[in-house]
Request: fold
Amino acid sequence: MDNTNQGKALIKGDVAIFLRGLIIGKVLTLMVIGGLLWWLLKPGLLSRNNSDSSSQSLKTTSSNASTFGSLADVPTDSFNYGGSTAWAPIRQVVDSQILSARPELKLRYLDPVNGSPGSTSGIRMLLNGQLDFAQSSRPLTDEEQAIAKQRGITLEQRQVGIDGIAVVVNPSLKMPGLTVAQLQQIYLGKVTNWNQVGGPNLPITPFSQRPENADTIIFSTNSGLKQQAFGSNVKYVYSTTEAVRQLSKTPGGIYYASARAVVPQCKVKPLPLGRTATDLVSSYREPLVSPDQCPRQRNQVNTEAIKNGSYPITSNLFVIIKQNKGQEQKIGDAYAKLLLTDQGQKAIEQAGFVGVR
Reply:
């Protein structure tokens, strides 16, 4: 009987020890879980998480502020614009993105009724009230500013991009390149044979759009040379398309235009240019793509050389705005601001030009 009671007491003692251990284990477990929860939810971490969230929100807001969709004060109406043919890639690439992001905005490109399209005709149409704003690849002239003043208005030119002016020749011509001064002498009629500038014995046939219609002015202040009247040997063409066609059939031909318009062409060859004969720079990205590789491959504009200033002749791209406190001023101002957003500048570079921001 005593042995039985003694066994029961031992069993009760073991149970008590087991239960005590179980309770202590649960308490320790709760303490560990509680400590973990405290660490996860402590004020510093919450503050840091909130800070990270706020920072991300600010980044998103900042990013949105530089897009087409978030720009404020964009008029919701239909507007007419026109001008430089050098802007054609911008109208195709950039303007289509703008209209996709802002479907309430309607832009219609108008060609001149008389004459060829270009910076000059676009500015003239703006002055005549036929356009709401104009696109130009050259600065306003003193004459255009004077006409505006006579009509009681002011024209503003707002730069949104940079374009290179490329010189192209017939693919068969063997020439390492030209200096800007040599190019000037060719178009002034003072150099008439390629052998005068280190090339073959071949007459030079310079092609150009008429100065009053041309989108690019090769002897403007951008190139450090004063604009002068062309020589009588210059053959005038209606458009770059016509010039490329004529050049492909003229072994001694030469033409200049927007780099974006002529560098990728298959039937002509871009010619390097330099301020001196020892610093020739290509308007295309090396290596040169030969005509037999085109159109499978095409030459691309050397935008890096245009951006860093090593390429010698460039033209600035301007939105021409009529400062009349009316709808024309509102849309011109809004269009320029759209092109100067981060998204607009990126799209301008996608179109083959260089941004200004």
Observations:
- Residues 7 and 13 are 10 Å apart (CA to CA).
- Confidence is low (pLDDT under 50) at residues 1-19, 27-65, 221-226.
- The two ends are 102 Å apart (CA to CA).
